[in-house]
């Protein structure tokens, strides 16, 4: 091991020890951004960037498992991504299905966060089959956000809530009165789960782009310049250390 590698390991161990005194996030969200720019800087194809990013997701989840973080939401494909060039999407769909399979094979509980309606039928069937074979219970649950948009999630939740209330024979006035923060939350994709404590976004972009728009009202954010394929375990540890040092005010 060279001197740089040794220093890196020493720093990583020090960060890990620091975190032992704190309570880590119970729900961690991550916006995996920068695959294409990473590939461009490396002189590689966009597909290569997406494959490197997918491999990093599996590695990242292993770090979370080691740290005993029980819930992670990974944004793999947004609704805006459907406007990308068809040739990029074809490769991306295959990569996503393969990555979901690897997550399931690692023994994690897989939950879909989003909608697969816009995906090709073969990809939808593949993901559905993977979900059926995934571990129903695990120390780590992974929400895989595919075809996800924060506004779309809220619309879907309200529509589902109104349909449920309407099926009970309620009047429009009664339906309106029954719509509340709690009733909408019960129809979100993440129903029954805690809101994210910390959201990480890579690539230097400092915006949420609609990620977990409803659930992130009291979340802490951590942005880093590193493109997602270059994200390291030490970057995660630094994000967690920063989170642990903050005084959470929950809007107060």
UniProtKB/TrEMBL annotation:
<dbReference type="GO" id="GO:0033850">
    <property type="term" value="F:Z-farnesyl diphosphate synthase activity"/>
</dbReference>
<feature type="binding site">
    <location>
        <begin position="34"/>
        <end position="37"/>
    </location>
    <ligand>
        <name>substrate</name>
    </ligand>
</feature>
<comment type="similarity">
    <text>Belongs to the UPP synthase family. Z-FPP synthase subfamily.</text>
</comment>
<feature type="binding site">
    <location>
        <begin position="207"/>
        <end position="209"/>
    </location>
    <ligand>
        <name>substrate</name>
    </ligand>
</feature>
<protein>
    <recommendedName>
        <fullName>Isoprenyl transferase</fullName>
        <ecNumber>2.5.1.-</ecNumber>
    </recommendedName>
</protein>
<comment type="function">
    <text>Catalyzes the condensation of isopentenyl diphosphate (IPP) with allylic pyrophosphates generating different type of terpenoids.</text>
</comment>
<feature type="active site" description="Proton acceptor">
    <location>
        <position position="81"/>
    </location>
</feature>
<feature type="binding site">
    <location>
        <position position="38"/>
    </location>
    <ligand>
        <name>substrate</name>
    </ligand>
</feature>
<feature type="binding site">
    <location>
        <position position="220"/>
    </location>
    <ligand>
        <name>Mg(2+)</name>
    </ligand>
</feature>
<dbReference type="InterPro" id="IPR001441">
    <property type="entry name" value="UPP_synth-like"/>
</dbReference>
<dbReference type="GO" id="GO:0045547">
    <property type="term" value="F:ditrans,polycis-polyprenyl diphosphate synthase [(2E,6E)-farnesyl diphosphate specific] activity"/>
</dbReference>
<dbReference type="InterPro" id="IPR036424">
    <property type="entry name" value="UPP_synth-like_sf"/>
</dbReference>
<keyword id="KW-0479">Metal-binding</keyword>
<feature type="binding site">
    <location>
        <position position="201"/>
    </location>
    <ligand>
        <name>substrate</name>
    </ligand>
</feature>
<feature type="binding site">
    <location>
        <begin position="78"/>
        <end position="80"/>
    </location>
    <ligand>
        <name>substrate</name>
    </ligand>
</feature>
<feature type="binding site">
    <location>
        <position position="82"/>
    </location>
    <ligand>
        <name>substrate</name>
    </ligand>
</feature>
<dbReference type="GO" id="GO:0005886">
    <property type="term" value="C:plasma membrane"/>
</dbReference>
<dbReference type="GO" id="GO:0016094">
    <property type="term" value="P:polyprenol biosynthetic process"/>
</dbReference>
<comment type="subunit">
    <text>Homodimer.</text>
</comment>
<dbReference type="GO" id="GO:0000287">
    <property type="term" value="F:magnesium ion binding"/>
</dbReference>
<feature type="active site">
    <location>
        <position position="33"/>
    </location>
</feature>
<dbReference type="Pfam" id="PF01255">
    <property type="entry name" value="Prenyltransf"/>
</dbReference>
<keyword id="KW-0460">Magnesium</keyword>
<dbReference type="InterPro" id="IPR018520">
    <property type="entry name" value="UPP_synth-like_CS"/>
</dbReference>
<feature type="binding site">
    <location>
        <position position="50"/>
    </location>
    <ligand>
        <name>substrate</name>
    </ligand>
</feature>
<feature type="binding site">
    <location>
        <position position="84"/>
    </location>
    <ligand>
        <name>substrate</name>
    </ligand>
</feature>
<feature type="binding site">
    <location>
        <position position="33"/>
    </location>
    <ligand>
        <name>Mg(2+)</name>
    </ligand>
</feature>
<keyword id="KW-0808">Transferase</keyword>
């Amino acid at each position: 091991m060279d001197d740089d590698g040794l220093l890196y390991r020493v720093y990583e161990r020090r960060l890990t020890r620091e975190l032992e005194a704190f309570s880590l996030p119970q729900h961690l969200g991550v916006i995996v951004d920068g695959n294409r720019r990473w590939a461009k800087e490396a002189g590689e194809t966009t597909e290569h960037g997406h494959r490197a990013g997918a491999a990093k997701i599996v590695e990242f989840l292993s770090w979370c498992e080691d740290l005993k973080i029980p819930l992670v939401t990974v944004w793999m494909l947004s609704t805006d991504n459907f406007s990308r060039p068809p040739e990029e999407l074809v490769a991306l769909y295959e990569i996503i299905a393969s990555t979901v399979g690897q997550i399931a094979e690692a023994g994690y509980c897989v939950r879909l966060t989003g909608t697969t309606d816009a995906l090709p039928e073969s990809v939808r069937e593949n993901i559905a089959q993977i979900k059926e074979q995934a571990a129903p219970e695990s120390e780590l649950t992974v929400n895989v956000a595919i075809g996800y948009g924060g506004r779309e999630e809220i619309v879907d939740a309200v529509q589902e809530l109104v349909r449920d209330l309407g099926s009970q024979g309620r009047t429009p006035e009664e339906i309106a009165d029954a719509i509340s923060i709690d009733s909408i939350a019960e129809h979100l994709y993440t129903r029954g789960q805690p809101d994210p404590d910390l959201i990480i976004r890579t690539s230097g972009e400092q915006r949420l782009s609609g990620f977990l728009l409803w659930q992130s009202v009291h979340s802490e954010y951590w942005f880093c310049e590193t493109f997602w394929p270059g994200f390291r375990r030490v970057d995660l540890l630094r994000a967690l250390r920063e989170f642990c040092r903050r005084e959470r005010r929950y809007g107060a």
